[in-house]
Design a protein that fits this description.
The complex is a heterodimer of chains A (414) and B (116).
Chain A: E1 5-9, H1 13-24, E2 31-34, H2 66-71, E3 74-77, E4 81-85, E5 90-93, E6 98-106, E7 110-112, E8 125-126, H3 131-141, E9 146-150, H4 154-165, E10 169-174, H5 186-198, E11 202-205, E12 209-215, E13 218-224, E14 228-231, E15 234-237, E16 241-243, H6 246-250, E17 259-260, E18 272-274, E19 279-283, E20 288-290, H7 295-309, E21 321-326, E22 329-335, E23 342-348, E24 353-360, E25 363-370, H8 373-384, H9 393-397, H10 403-413
Parallel strand pairs in A: 1-2, 1-6, 2-3, 6-18, 8-15, 9-10, 9-15, 10-11, 17-19
Antiparallel strand pairs in A: 4-5, 5-6, 7-16, 12-13, 13-14, 19-20, 21-22, 22-25, 23-24, 24-25
Helix pairs in contact in A: 1-7, 8-10
Chain B: H1 2-7, E1 12-16, E2 22-26, H2 33-39, E3 59-62, H3 67-70, H4 75-81, E4 92-94, E5 107-110
Parallel strand pairs in B: 1-5
Antiparallel strand pairs in B: 1-2, 3-4, 3-5
Bound molecules: flavin-adenine dinucleotide and FE2/S2 (inorganic) cluster.
């Protein structure tokens, strides 16, 4: 194993997957991953779920046992890449160290969008992206009584469920008219709003935060535009993320709300790929340039690049799927929905077991399931074979229609 | 889990790969069979969702002698198992849903040919 091999910037879900898949596929050259987080590579989803609930500790978060990487000859360098020298084909770390590459993979992920209001720097005001963020937040949650969540996205709502369970009064301030508005249908938003309210949470939609007030350096209240002054001893800001594309931009690579790549996840430089949260790529399911923030996306991107580096290129077309656990409810999404898709709800909405089928031009494109695992898995199988789109509202509407039964029948037909 | 860890009971699990390779690991009571594998670098289990019962890439076959002690899959798990990459069998389980206990000391698990 000599000469330059593959260098990966970012030891998150996507970056680590490239390394694991390369070794699995038999890659024999050196693999170096740059990790700037001060923890062995870990997964993020439990940060707002099992970890926040105290069900798992730090070790339970690791993607692999730390010495696994040694055994697989994957070298993890604890340093932040500062510069890419595309002419000399090397990266330069903060420590000054230089590492040559034959293939470079940018898996720099994203960071939380900051909220530019007075008081955002007060003690008791948190954001949630990293293990360090989650550890600090979990520490204060025990004693919190009044929690304000700014932003009703997935992470904000997952945290809200945990905070309610911990006995805090939870208030969610959301600028849009409904929660998770960018990602789910109005039907799903409505269901989850009701469920959080049943747990005692309150919501302010169409409202924004003007400032956060403190006393002796610690937050005491949040001033909103419409709702007035809300008491708070803990605030979580969850107003979305920004892709980490500055490194790529400084190296002259094309960026536009992320690092721009083609269907093979290659940047404007043929020896540099970009994957995961930081990459904007042509998505076949939305028929548009898309940046997807999900574990599935990160893992499948990683695998796709590893396969290409092993001489087996194929255009990226993995089935998109996502999950979010909020309190007792499991939301699972298969496919990609866009604003304007028409929703059809099937199942027991009041009893909390239902799916929303989303149609674009009378063709089924996305299935959102609440505690309906069978629908979710059937939708994924049908998306994989390209058959989901054959379903029309007329078919799905029928009393007797069942997606799982349809999926197994389809398999037999094929 | 905290309590279990304090008592330091470490049931053993033997993982047998599709190609016959074997590895036995000890893991604390309360750990899942999936977590015990990942922590110890046992291949054959991907666990993309990290144990949220959402991905079905932690599919395993429980040795016949242990099926009863592991218990049947829950409803959701049962539905997930319908869509595994390798064939579902009567002894199929999601390893993230099997929690290690003293009763499971000596458990034997087989990993399927593929998870994705
Ligand atoms: C709290 C939370 C809950 C989530 N829940 C879910 C869920 O339930 N389901 C789901 O599908 N997704 C979930 N996600 C999203 C999912 O975790 C991300 O989409 C996924 O982690 C993206 O992986 P990534 O490798 O692209 O980026 P990241 O995980 O962000 O990793 C990028 C890494 O690169 C590092 N880095 C950046 N620049 C440099 C540099 N110059 N040098 C060295 N290192 C660098 C970063 O510090 C980071 O460690 C959740 C995310 C969060 C934060
Ligand atoms: S780890 Fe995903 S279902 Fe078990």
């Amino acid at each position: 194993m000599s000469g330059p091999g593959t260098v990966i910037v970012g030891a998150g879900q996507a970056g680590v997957q490239v390394a694991l898949s390369l070794r699995e596929f038999g890659y024999s050259k050196p693999i170096t991953i740059f990790n700037d987080e001060g923890h062995p590579p870990y997964q993020r989803p439990p940060l707002s779920k099992a970890f926040m609930l105290g069900k798992v500790g730090h070790e339970g978060m690791y993607l692999r046992n730390p010495d696994y990487f040694d055994r697989a000859s994957i070298s993890i360098v604890c340093d932040q890449v500062q510069t890419i020298d595309r002419v000399a084909r090397k990266v330069i770390g903060q420590s000054g160290g230089q590492t040559e590459y034959e293939a470079l993979v940018l898996a720099t992920g994203s960071r939380n969008r900051t909220l530019d209001v007075p008081g955002a720097e007060l003690n008791g005001v948190f954001s949630l992206r990293s293990l360090d963020d989650a550890t600090a937040l979990r520490g204060q949650l025990q004693s919190a009584r009044d929690v304000v969540v700014i932003g009703g996205g997935f992470i904000g709502l997952e945290f809200a469920a945990v905070a309610s369970k911990a006995g805090a009064r939870v208030h969610v301030v959301e600028a849009a008219a409904r929660p998770m508005a960018r990602a789910v249908s109005p039907e799903i938003s409505a269901y989850f709003t009701r469920r959080h309210m049943d747990r005692g949470a309150t919501f302010a939609f169409g409202d924004t935060v003007l400032r956060i007030d403190g006393k002796d350096g610690h937050v005491v209240s949040v001033q909103t535009a419409k709702g007035g002054l809300v008491p708070a001893d803990l605030v979580l800001i969850g107003v979305g993320i920004v892709p980490n594309s500055e490194l790529a931009h400084a190296a002259g690579l094309a960026t536009d709300n992320g690092i721009v790549v083609d269907e093979h996840l290659v940047t404007s430089d043929p020896s540099i790929s970009a994957i995961g949260d930081c990459a904007i790529y042509p998505n076949v399911f939305s028929n548009s340039m898309l940046r997807v923030e999900s574990v599935q996306n990160a893992i499948d991107h990683g695998r796709s690049v590893a396969a290409r580096l092993m001489g087996r290129p194929s255009a990226y077309c993995a089935v998109p799927w996502f999950w979010s656990d909020q309190g007792e409810d499991k939301l699972q999404i298969a496919g990609i929905s866009l604003v304007g898709d028409i929703g059809l709800t099937k199942g027991d909405q009041a009893g909390g077991r239902f799916s929303v089928f989303l149609f674009r031009n009378d063709s089924l494109v996305c299935v959102e399931s609440v505690n309906r695992v069978a629908d979710h898995m059937a939708a994924r199988a049908l998306l994989k074979t390209g058959r989901l789109g054959r379903l029309t509202p007329d078919t799905v509407q029928s009393e007797t229609f069942d997606l799982k039964a349809y999926a197994s029948k389809e398999t037999v037909d094929a | 889990m905290e309590q279990a860890t304090r008592e330091r009971r470490m049931p053993a699990v033997k993982y047998i790969q599709f190609d016959g390779a074997e590895q036995t690991v000890d893991a604390p009571v309360g750990t899942s069979v999936m977590q015990a594998a990942l922590t110890n670098g046992v291949p054959g289990i991907l666990a993309e969702c990290g144990g949220a019962a959402s991905c079905a890439t932690c599919h395993v076959y429980v040795d016949e002698a242990w099926v009863e002690r592991c218990g049947p899959p829950g409803d959701d798990e049962n539905d997930m198992l319908e869509c595994t990459a390798s064939e579902r069998r009567p002894n199929s389980r999601l390893s993230c849903q099997i929690e290690l206990s003293d009763e499971l000391d000596g458990l034997i698990i087989r990993t399927p040919e593929t998870q994705s």
